[in-house]
Amino acid sequence: MSGIDLPGAGLWTTSVGSLPKPPYLTRARAKYARNEIARAELRELERQATREWIDFQNSIDTDVVVDGEQYRGDMVAFFAEELPGLEIGGLVRAYGNRYYRKPVATGPVGREHAVTVEWWEFAQSLTDKPVKGMLTGPYTICDWSFDEHYGNRRAFVLDVARAIRDEALDLEAAGARFIQIDEPAASTRMDEFSLVIEAMEIITAPLRAHTITHICYGDFHDAYPKMLDIPVDQIDLELANSDYALLQSFGEHPFTRYLGLGVSDVHSHVLEPVETMVEGIRRALKLLPADKLFVDPDCGLKTRTVEEAQAKLTNIKKAVDIVRAES
Amino acid sequence: MINTTVVGSYPKPPSGKKPGASIPFELRRVLRSLEKGEASVEDLHQAQDRLVTEVISEQEEAGVDVVTDGHVRWDDLVTPFASHMAGIELSGLLRYFDNNVYYRRPVCVGPVEWRGPVSVDAWRYADSVATKPVKAVIPGPLTIARLSLDDHYSSHEKFVLALARVLAQEAFELEAAGARIIQIDEPALLDAPEDLPLARRALGAVVAELKLPQVVLATYFSDAKRLGADLFDMPADVFHLDFVSGPENEELISLIPPESKLQAGVLDSRNTLLESTSDVGAFVHRLFEEFGADRLSLAPSAGLEFLPRDKARSKLERLTQIARRAGE
C-alpha cells in the first residue's frame, strides 16, 4: 500500500462499480444478441456510454471514478466469457422475474490475455481523476458458477484467483492506483471464509495499488469482525439498506480499514434525501476519521435508470459537501 | 421397483443455448406486462397454467412417479405463503440459504392469521393435468419464522406456533381437495438444532388434523447430523435427506426407525454435472438393501429450479434410470 494520494481531507466520493446502461445501449445489446448489428457498432455505443458516465462523474467532481461497466452484462458472466475454462450456461433465476445465464467450469481456468485493461485505459484517458480497476473476486466467480470440472471448491477458487491476479497486475502496470475486487458472495458460507481470504491473498500480495473489496447480501453479524482478515486496504459495505445497523458492530470491534460507506439503497427507486445521507455519514464519523472514509452507493447502480442513478450520485456528492463544510 | 419423486421447484425458462440477451419466455413476458399494466391477472394465470402443464408432462415423460407443479407460480417456497397471511409484509432482498438466489424477507408486523388457502387451487389444477399423483408442498413454520423478521410477537416460540396454526389450515384444505401426500419443508431446521423441540411441536400442530397417508418432512442444502436420531421423532411418515450437500447424512441412515420411510436426495440439484449411473447406483443399492422398495424413494437433493431446464430434465431421466436399475 503506497498511500492513496487524493486531494482533500477525506470523505472521498466514488461508485461501487456498475452504472445503468442508457436505453440506446440496452437496445443495441439486444440487437447484437440477435445478430442484427456488428460487434464494432456495439463497441462504439459502449464507448459512447462510458464517455457519458465519465463526463457525468467529472461534472459532480467524483474523487475516484469508475468506467460504469457499460460493456459488461453481469459481473460473473463477463469474466466467464473471457477466461478459458469457463463457459456461459443456461438460464437460471436470480430473484423475482430476473434471470441470468449461469457460467459453467468445463476445464482448468486460466487467463490468455488482459480483459479489462483496454477499457480502463480508455476511461482513464477521459478524466484527470483516478479510475478504479474493477474485478470480480474468485470466490464469487466460482460460487456463482456451476462446476463440471474441479469437483473441489478450493482448487477451483484458487485457479480463478491466479487468473484475476494476472489481470490485477496488468491493470497496475497500466497505471491503476485503485483496484477493487468484488466479493459479494464472501459472506455466503462462514465455514468457507478462510478460502475467501486465501484467494484474496493471492491477488493482493503482489499489488502496490490501493485495494478494495465489496461485500453484500450477507449476515454481517456472522461476517464481522472476521471480514477484517481479508487482505485488502478498504472494505466497501452496503449500510443504507439496513439503516446503518452494521455500524453498531464497529463499536465492539473497531473497524481497521478504509471504509466504503454505502449511503444509498440501490434496490430502491426512492431517492434518499440529502439529509438522510448526511446523517449516515455523521454516524460513521463517530466511529472512523474522515480520512478513512469513502462515500458511495450501497452497491452497483446498474438496476436503476440513468436518471435515478445520477440523482442518487448527485445527492451523495451534496451530502458529502455538507459534512465536509462542517469540519 | 423404487419410486422416484421431486423435492418441489422446477426451472421456469425453456431450454435454449442462445447467447446474449435472455429469452423472453411467456411467463416472464406476461409478468413484465402485468407490471406495466398491459396484462391482466387472468393472463398471468393462463400463462402459469400452461407452464404447469408443461413441467408436469416433462416430469412424467422422465418417468417420475410422484410429481409437483414445479412451484412455477412462485418465486420461492416461503414468500407466497408468508405474504398471504394477515400480519406479514415483505421487505428487502436477502440471500436464500447459500444459493445465489434472493427472496424478499417477510416481516411480521401484527398477529399472524389465515386469510384463505394459498396453494389449493394450484394443487387442484396440477392434479387435473397430471396422470401421476401430485405432491402438495408447503413450507414449515420454523423455516418461515427463521427467514422472517418478527417485529410483533417478540417471542420466537409464539411466532412459530402462530405460523403453524395457519399452515395447519392450509394442510387441512389441501387434504380436503384430495391431496394424498403433503411435504413440509424445513431446511432452516438444519442450522437450528436448538429449535428441534419447538419444530416438533409446530409440525405436530400442522399435521394434527390430517388423515392422509403420507406426510413428508424435507430438509436440504446441508446435513442433519446435529439433529441426530431426534429428527426422526418429528411427526412425519417420510424423511427427505439431502445426501449431496450433506454427505454426513449417511451416518443417519441406521437411525431411521423401521416405521419411517426415506426419500433420498441423491442427485445434485444445484450443479449441472450429471452424476454417473454407477457411482450413485452403488449408494442407492445400499439404501435399497437397507430399506427395500417399500420404504425408499429417490429424489434430487433439493428443488430443481437452481438448474437450467435441460439439465433439470437430464437429472430426472438419470434418477429414474438409477431407480430402475437398483430395483432390479
Structure description:
The complex is a heterodimer of chains A (327) and B (328). By secondary structure, chain A is of the alpha/beta class. Chain A has one domain (12-74, 112-326): TIM Barrel (Alpha-Beta Barrel), CATH 3.20.20.210. Chain A is 39% helix and 16% strand. Chain A is built from eleven helices and ten strands. In chain A, the strands form two sheets. A seven-stranded parallel β-sheet of chain A has the order 1-10-9-8-7-6-4. In chain A, strands 2-3-5 form a three-stranded mixed β-sheet. In chain A, helix 1 (23-33) runs antiparallel to helix 2 (39-59) and helix 6 (153-174) runs parallel beside helix 7. Chain A is globular, with a radius of gyration of 19 Å. The model of chain A has no long low-confidence stretch (mean pLDDT 94). Chain B has helices at residues 26-35, 41-61, 78-84, 120-129, 141-146, 156-177, 196-207, 277-291, 309-326, and strands spanning 3-4, 86-95, 102-113, 136-139, 149-150, 181-185, 214-218, 238-242, 261-267, 296-300. In chain B, strand 6, helix 7 and strand 7 (214-218) form a beta-alpha-beta unit. Chain B has a domain at 3-11 and 27-72 and 134-140 and 166-326: Alpha-Beta Barrel (TIM Barrel), CATH 3.20.20.210. Chain B has a seven-stranded parallel β-sheet. A three-stranded mixed β-sheet of chain B has the order 2-3-5. Chain B is built from nine helices and ten strands. Helices cover 37% and strands 17% of the residues of chain B. Chain B is globular and about 55 Å long. Chain B has 328 residues and is α/β, with parallel strands linked by helices. The chains are: A alpha/beta (327), B alpha/beta (328).
